[in-house]
């Protein structure tokens, strides 16, 4: 045994529900308010520091929505047999070079600006798809007969149909994904004002853990599997999750079961990072020092213990202004509590808008023993059915340390705290991993 985890636990005995923990984390977090300009090609994953207001209309002019023949609808109504002479052609990048002639039609391609007539009463405003029109030749003139069903303004995109100049195209605190990057480019924004990228420190605790990059320990682990060592999978997994969420990561390494060493490592991370995630040592056992190290560093524990499985020993606190998330060391608990709790807290701190993962009803495919008062999250795969809801069945073996229950799983089956055992055929809520992310 090393140091005694001398943290007073008298006020930390009440376990919280998931929703209660989310509320407490929101109070614990202070969003960063430092902004910087970013080139558009480097802005993916960032959170906007201010609204993006469009200076232009999208589309910039009235345009054709299809390849076809354009006319003024009023002219068409007056034309014999709805037939007009072809007076020109307009292509994307090569609009009509002259004014639109009244009582005629032009061929036009998708996205091409609609030409203007000298008389506004004859501006073209209607387009028929080319396959719906009849084409004939007479005396060197091409005639276009429009279909009877054509309506005014058909296949016509007015200027600003998508975005008008002066509109807020992207709102402050929006996370920039591929669609948002495309929209910013469409309105001519090559630089965006974004929040400073969050730096998250990660470290693992446990005498048994070995870094995958430690070749000597790796060889020893392979040659003597009974020596008690295991590879640390938590830091690589967290690193991947954090990078996927758009954050920078500082790896604090592996710390043994020693409160003072862990406290020193935490203090070091507070000088480098905006938030800290510790895996392992979050329970109240004699060799669990995560909570004790926080208080030894001058920090406070906000809450400890959740009414969920996996992830019951989860705790959260802060050292100064730096939030610290203490996640149980079992890999599945790390993954699940990050997705359900930590990800949203970091999103708020990074300047984003909180979001709840969508839940979908599914049919439970097996009987599941369940203790009321605790919400369970079971890794499942879905099988579609022809007539009803998809059927969810557990993927891999149960257990918070069984990583294979995550690989290949579709998401989490949520067994609510207010129910007991679940029977095959019962309806439960399902959280897709893509939604939780």
Blueprint (SSEs and pairs):
Blueprint: H1 18-28, E1 35-39, E2 52-53, E3 63-64, E4 68-71, H2 73-78, E5 83-90, E6 104-108, E7 126-129, E8 134-138, E9 141-145, E10 156-157, E11 168-170, H3 178-186, E12 191-195, E13 199-205, E14 209-210, H4 215-223, E15 230-231, H5 234-244, E16 248-255, H6 259-270, E17 275-279, H7 290-296, E18 300-304, E19 308-309, E20 315-319, E21 322-327, H8 331-349, E22 360-364, E23 375-383, E24 391-394, E25 411-415, E26 427-432, H9 433-436
Parallel strand pairs: 5-6, 13-16, 13-17, 14-15, 17-21, 19-23, 22-24
Antiparallel strand pairs: 1-12, 2-11, 3-10, 4-6, 4-7, 5-9, 8-9, 18-20, 20-21, 22-26, 23-24, 23-25, 25-26
Overview of the structural elements:
With 437 residues, this protein is of the alpha/beta class. It folds into four domains: 170 residues, Molybdenum Cofactor Biosythetic Enzyme, Chain A, CATH 3.40.980; 57 residues, Molybdopterin biosynthesis moea protein, domain 2 (Alpha-Beta Complex); 95 residues, Molybdopterin biosynthesis moeA protein, domain 3 (Beta Complex), CATH 2.170.190.11; 77 residues, MoeA, C-terminal, domain IV (Beta-clip, Beta Barrel), CATH 2.40.340. Helices cover 20% and strands 28% of the residues. The strands form seven sheets. A six-stranded mixed sheet has the order 7-4-6-5-9-8. A six-stranded mixed sheet has the order 16-13-17-21-20-18, with helices on both faces. The longest helix has 19 residues. The two termini are 38 Å apart. The N terminus is likely disordered.
